[in-house]
Amino acid sequence: MGQSNTIRILDGNTFVVCEDTGDIEATPSEPTGLFSIDTRFLSTWVLTVNGERLNSLSFDDLQYFESRFFLVPGMATHYIDAKLSIIRERAVGGSFREQITILNHDEKPVDLEIRMEAASDFADLFQVKDEILNKKGEIYSEVEADRLRLGYRRGNFRRETIISSSVAPRYDSKGFAYTVHLEPNEQWDTAIDVQTQAIGPGDRDLRIGLRVHGGERLALQHDLEKWIADAPKVNSEHGRVSSTYQRSLIDLAALRFSPLSLGGATLPAAGLPWFMTMFGRDSILTCLQTLPFTPQLSKTTLRILAALQGSRFDDFRDEDPGRILHEMRYGETAAFEEQPHSPYYGSVDATPLFVVLLDEYERWSGDVALVKELEQESRAALKWIDSYADLIGNGYIWYERRNTDTGLENQCWKDSWDSISYSDGTLPPFPRATCEVQGYAYDAKVRGARLAREFWGDPEFADQLEREAEELKQRFNRDWWVADGEYYALALDPDGRQCDVLSSNIGHLLWSGIVEPERAEKLAQHLVGPRLFTGWGVRTLAEGEARYNPIGYHNGTIWPFDNSFIAWGLRRYGFTEEAATIASGILDAATYFDGRLPEAFGGYPRELTKFPVEYPTACSPQAWSTGTPLLLLRTMLGLEPHEGHLAVDPQLPRGMGRIEVLDIPGRWGRVDAFARGRIDLQELSD
Question: Coiled coil: which residue ranges (predicted)?
Fold first, then answer.
């Protein structure tokens, strides 16, 4: 859906998307409404005065969890001489509260009929996304003395929206109304509380309480202030860096999601509107991006993913022992197994990335206790790589869905149906193996060896993992290298034939360390060359490939998160200039999105469009796009844990000026990093 004509506020996986008047008039296919736990709890929320719709003068996006709308009666015209002002103040926090204020500017009294139309279709978010609203249960509306109860029941699955008001209205099955008399210059207001409630199969109470009453709204504000205060401070001569960083911090706060089993601890939800829930891959990669700034997210993410790690073979959920989940949902379609996300394990990369994050987290934090706590889960993840993921038996990670009805076909990060192809544009058969996942597996083995040797007291296992990693590296460099193009194939088919297209995935290979050093320079040239690099960033698929499309979801768009890991990979192999070029392009693009990078944007050449072209259905905010500026800061400053200290080796883009990152947390306490221009080495100051 378009971004410009809707207002969004959110708190974790509860969010409201509405018109610029504050009204909600949802259709089955449109993600407007009040959503929580993958259910739309309000699909109609329309305010009228004397039967007349209201016109928006302006709105304020106060914080990620609140907004204010300034309205007048009547149609928009240059000749409005409004005698009434209507202010709607809305805050979301689990559910939401709305304050309505009406002011009479006339010299004579007025009598008003104020009405709110209220309804809910209780659509599952998957039904909205798929544009299919097929409710199999009963929708009801119950008028009580002091509230309106909207509900949906299907067996022992129940969802309810409970509406009450500080000024008693007249409730009916379709909303509620007030009769108000206002003297000249008099003000009237009321606070409307909207509480959502859920009872799941087995009568598991998932009540989402009112968290935005008075002091609770202040608690949200104080929580945000503490979140920002605890994070490092970024100052820069180039204003785009510090402002984009601040926007990212606030969006990360908004996207924090507290799974029902965590008792208040949070991890990053993937993105609004479709993915406001736990994703293995997205949460892990976001944590890797944000580790130097918000390390607490990593600990929570590792723990919850470990707790939900696969333990059996389940074809419906594509579950294996040791496999890390892909996605967790709480809506009706998951509850009744009409789709498998309860949780669903159809991700081929989350499992090796789990080990990568655990090692990287320890390197930053020194949290040995967590490494020991998650030893068995880490061993199970490493076992999955060789025992269950190698579907062909040739030492690579492959994927093929066992749930052929509702499972994901492509289980890599480029998971759209046509993202994996040969150079002639045809699609390969299954199973498939994509290149970056082999890099993740290599990295997981190398890092797992360090954990085994230093913390698990198992040097034999460490030696085994290192041997396996080296064998994988040799095998990979033999089988995946496209000799005539001098890059690595995007994927292999089950016969070993290369999907020999040039793609952004080669940058992830640099990040993982699986690339032979003598081949790295050619990859760097490709990544900043004209087929892949647009001036804004690296395209997912190179110009000139058969399926290239600058606005194709994974076939030519630019994904900011993808670029952040590419830049990190270039730094790993010493290509600091190229990494800085990519960082500069992405940060330039961020300024056109008010510092909030979207999920993806068009892969058009910079000199052609002069500005980054927004992808029409991109999620925003999205966690790993929000994490992108933070990883680019790490990359530009060359921040790396080294023997218990933080090393800094900055390489800034031209024209960037001075950057300061103050109070970087880690096992070293808190330290500061500074860089200017082409400084090659910068000492730290406490």
Answer: none
- Judging by DSSP bridges, how do beta strands 39-42 and 481-482 pair with one another? unpaired
- For the chain, give percent helix, strand, coil, nearest 5: 30, 25, 40
Note whether 190 and 365 are within 8 A (CB). Answer: no
User: What separation in angstroms does the CA of 23 have from each of 18, 272, 644?
Assistant: 6, 19, 54
C-alpha–C-alpha distance, residues 303 and 641, integer Å: 22
As a residue count, the chain comes to: 686
- The pLDDT assigned to 238 comes to 76
What pLDDT is stored for residue 265 in this prediction?
73
Q: What are phi and psi of 96, to 5 degrees?
A: -145, 160
- pLDDT at residue 301 is higher than 60: yes
DSSP 8-state class, residue 648: -
Residue carrying structure tokens 């890991």: 565
Domains for the chain: give ranges and CATH numbers.
7-210 (2.70.98.40), 231-676 (1.50.10.10)
pLDDT of residue 683: 37
Q: Are 173 and 156 in contact (CB under 8 A)?
A: no
Residue type, 299: K
E-assigned strand segments in 30-186: 33-36, 39-42, 44-49, 54-63, 66-73, 84-93, 95-104, 110-119, 138-143, 148-154, 157-165, 170-172, 175-182
Specify the residue for token string 């199999």: 136
Quote the pLDDT of residue 547: 98
Number of Cβ within 10 Å of residue 459's Cβ equals 12
Span between the terminal Cα atoms of the chain, in Å: 47
Cα distances (angstroms) measured from residue 434 to each of 131, 166, 444, 504 = 31, 57, 16, 12
Q: How far apart are CA 131 and CA 135, in angstroms?
A: 12
The structure's pTM equals 0.89
Give the C-alpha separation, 475 to 555, whole Å. 27
3-class secondary-structure state, position 639: coil
